[in-house]
From TrEMBL:
Chain segments annotated as transmembrane: 7-28, 34-55, 67-93, 123-144, 156-177, 183-204, 216-235
Transmembrane helix as UniProt keyword: yes
The organism's place on the tree of life at top rank: Eukaryota
Protein source organism: Dissophora globulifera
UniProt name for this protein: Uncharacterized protein
Keywords: Membrane, Transmembrane, Transmembrane helix
Lineage: Eukaryota, Fungi, Fungi incertae sedis, Mucoromycota, Mortierellomycotina
Length: 268
């Protein structure tokens, strides 16, 4: 008989596969790398839930060394995925927002430059802390190492929550700053809201391990909010933000970053 966790993992795999197809179609039309970033996140989640379905099946003995290794690999992939999703949003804003500023002849402040150009830099140390903390949580390690792993995970997940809230603030603030792009920022803001819920869930389970024992929270709520966010992100973001009638490639030269003059033939 198929276990509940195994069945829910299989359903989650199907759920992530749907937006993955959407991102691949978008990328095939536009060759815009942002769609590949989101698609890779879907792949990470699919692999993680396939592992989850396997170690929750009768083929693997609960509590065995094999089970523990598969579980750690699964949690590590989930952690990498959490970081990668925020990198996706950072890459999206990096590709789009400087272009909007350029088209409106606006100059970015130091804070905006950090948010839209350098925001991906802090992800590397946070990623290292989160992945190291996840690996050190292996119950076969000493208690000292496990405690250090917990501290690293708590620090990293709180920083990821802070960045997630920053992205949520950005989508809300620029929703009002650029009324002509209101629909675009409302779309990304809604998707970011659902992802923030997923990050908050990870914060709760990190600080209170007992909450991770809820099957419905871990295998229904967490993947559901992410799939909803991915479905929203899989719309034609370039048309929403830049007013294109179809997917188009956005090159670094087009972004300008305030270095080139606005093309007078461009639609503003």
């Amino acid at each position: 008989m198929v276990a509940t966790q195994e069945l829910l993992c299989i359903l989650s795999v199907v759920g992530y596969f749907v937006p993955l197809c959407g991102f691949l179609v978008r990328y095939a039309r536009s060759r815009w790398p942002v769609y590949l970033f989101f698609g890779f996140f879907c792949v990470l989640r699919i692999v993680a839930y396939i592992l989850g379905a396997y170690y929750n099946s009768p083929a693997v003995v609960f509590g065995s060394l094999r089970y523990i290794n598969l579980f750690i690999a699964d949690v590590t992939l989930v952690s990498i995925g959490a970081i990668h999703m925020l990198i996706c949003i950072g890459q999206l804003y990096h590709s789009i927002v400087p272009k909007i500023f350029h088209n409106h002849n606006h100059t970015m402040t130091a804070f905006e430059t950090f948010c839209f150009v350098h925001i991906r830099i802090p992800f590397f140390p946070f990623a290292g802390c989160l992945i190291a903390g996840t690996i050190l949580a292996n119950p076969t390690y000493s208690l000292v190492l496990q405690e250090r792993g917990v501290i690293l995970r708590k620090f990293a997940i709180l920083m990821l929550l802070a960045i997630s809230l920053l992205f949520l603030y950005i989508s809300t603030a620029y929703h009002f700053r650029f009324p002509e792009h209101k629909a675009a920022f409302a779309t990304t803001g809604t998707a970011t809201f659902f992802l923030t819920l997923a990050v908050i869930y990870k914060v709760i389970t990190t600080f209170d391990v007992s909450t991770s024992e809820s099957v419905w929270a871990a295998y229904v709520f967490a993947p559901l909010v992410e799939v909803i966010a991915l479905a929203i992100f899989s719309v034609d973001l370039q048309t929403l933000f830049l007013g294109h009638t179809k997917d188009q490639v956005i090159t670094d030269e087009e972004q300008g970053h305030g270095e080139n003059k606005t093309n007078p033939t461009e639609k503003h």
